[in-house]
Amino acid sequence: MRKIRIVLADDHTLIRGGLRLTIEQHADLAVVGEAEDGRQAVALAASLKPDVAVLDIGMPNLNGIEAAKQITQGAPGPAVIVLSMHRDETYILRALKAGVRGYLLKDSAESDLVRAIRAVAEGKSFFSPAVSKVLLEDYMRKLQRTGAEDSYDLLTPREREILQMVAEGKSNKEVASILNLSVYTVETHRSNIMEKLKLKGLPELILYAVRKGIIA
Amino acid sequence: MRLSKQSCFIQRMQPVDRNTKPRLDSVRDVRQRQRPGLRRLRVVLAIGYGGLLVLLLVSGANALRTLRSLHDAEEQARSRSLERRRVLTTVVLSASVYTNNVERILLSEKPPDDSATLAEVLQRAREALSAVKAYPTDRTPEEQDLLDHLQAYLLDQGDILRSAKAWNPQEFRGRAQQVVSDEIIPRRQQFVTIAQQIELLNDNESIAAQQATFSEFGRLQDRLTRLLVIALTSGLLLAVGSAIYILRLERQERLRYAELAQNRSELQELSSKLLDAQETERRSLSRELHDEVGQALGLLLMDVGRLSTQLGSDAKLQEMVQRIKTVAERTVQTVRNMALLLRPSMLDDLGLVSAVEWYAREVSRRGEVEVEVKADYVSETLPDPLMVCIYRVVQEAVNNAQRHARAKNVTVELRGTPTAVQVQIKDDGSGFDTQRIRGMGLLGMEERVKRLGGTIAIDSRPGAGTTIRAELPLTEAETGHVA
Q1: What is the pLDDT of residues B261-320, one digit of tens each?
Q2: Which of B287, B302, B347 to mutate against chain A (most A CBs within 10 Å)?
Q3: Cα-Cα end-to-end distance for chain B
Q4: CATH level 3 topology of A133-211
Q5: Is the ipTM of this complex over 0.85?
């Protein structure tokens, strides 16, 4: 079986070493490169063409989010996971907009990192469970304050199904084949979902899904 | 004065940050030392002005009195002269009538037989005599002398007439002519001379009186001139003294003002430096916490995690590891919160708006107050001091709203214009009286905004909530950057 090739980027050597140790306990994972700042990470991603890049969000010379943006630009680039200590939606949304597939809180990096790497390598998304919890709480509080209804109730079962698959990173074509629908129908469903939930773009959709605990 | 100036100078030489209290004390000392000198000067000036006024009043009254007495003396001299002239005229007239009568009698052919005629002539003589006697009694010796002559003349005439009466007509005819030409006519001439002499005397006296008046007037003029010179001189001196006094006051005022302004600017500088130092310190502390403590704890957590997977299923050991992990996680969270409080690294990562939104959510999460953020046209690339300033203002305002005003809702509005960034923080809390309450928090806010050249307005009334508006200008380079 082909190993999942990984590039690690963190400005703290100790942490990088710790992450590497954690990863290399698993036979199906291999760290092929280490970078100590964002710029180096971008260069390594371009030259080594790994499957997954694990970036610390706060690095000198190009932070993790900017680096992620550059790494994911040339599709199909490596899937990017960022390590962050922020469980706030601003950071998550920004990371999502930069094309990040996995968002890991640093405190739970050890236990979740391997799962996250495997998930994004399969094309799925991964978010620390604690993140989902905070996002959901924020969302509920906002609903309570504005008195708005949870628009999730407005979705049909089919739409919920499609929402989950899209949020997990599946393309319209994949969704269509799984559900045995035409791509056109899936597209229509998808734009209905966006409209009902008042979402703009895929990152917000993923954030919504994370918030609702639809994906994790 | 010189002393105080010197001490001011010395005070200014002292470094700013070394104890300011003794400095204030010494300023007070200087002021107290200046006071007695000023009071003396004030007394001197008051006496000077009072003296000048009294001098002018007294000399004015004196001059008036002198003028009046001069006038009286002149009047007196004039009336005296007139009186004498009048009496003299009467004397001359009645004497000449008398003499004419005597002459007429003597030149008649026969001696006067008619006693009535004689009596009438003698009556004239008495009139003339009484006129002489009526001459004012305050006579000079010369006058008296001349008047005596006049009297003697009149009496002589009488004698001549009486002796002529005794003559027989023959005798009369022979001697009368003789007497008239030898005695009457020369004596009349003499009489006229005497009268003229008296008149002359009178005139002289009148002239003398006039001259006396003139010289008295001249003296008065001299005195007044002297007085005027004195008054002018002392007035000038007083004016100079007053000018000096005023200049000195002015200089003192200027000194004091300059001192005040300097104190203020020094204070401002100091607080600005303090803010800078605080911000720098916080940043380095935050970095230290995050980089060193945070990373070490992170590593610890990872190792603990690895340890846990390698320990196998020994429940006791697993529990111990789990406990270590829990404590480490809590510590990580605490350190992170501390670091963020010290330096909102979101400003570096996300820019102003997202950082403020982040903060709003953080606060809202605690459940006491809901903070809503609205943002329009705010650039993502603002200079760091400006972002920190606005962030701290928002932080302070929200903190106040929550802690002191017990607000339930806070709205933060951020708005970018081509030349500035505006922020408004509005709460529905209890509000306060802006005239009376000026807490350190509000002062700190003002200080932060002002030192970046911005303006801040705090609008609040008890029971009506609080609205804080601040506007921070972008410098030219920054506006260019934004554009």
Answers
A1: 999 888 888 888 888 888 888 888 888 888 788 888 888 888 888 888 888 788 888 899
A2: B302
A3: 58
A4: Rossmann fold (3.40.50)
A5: no
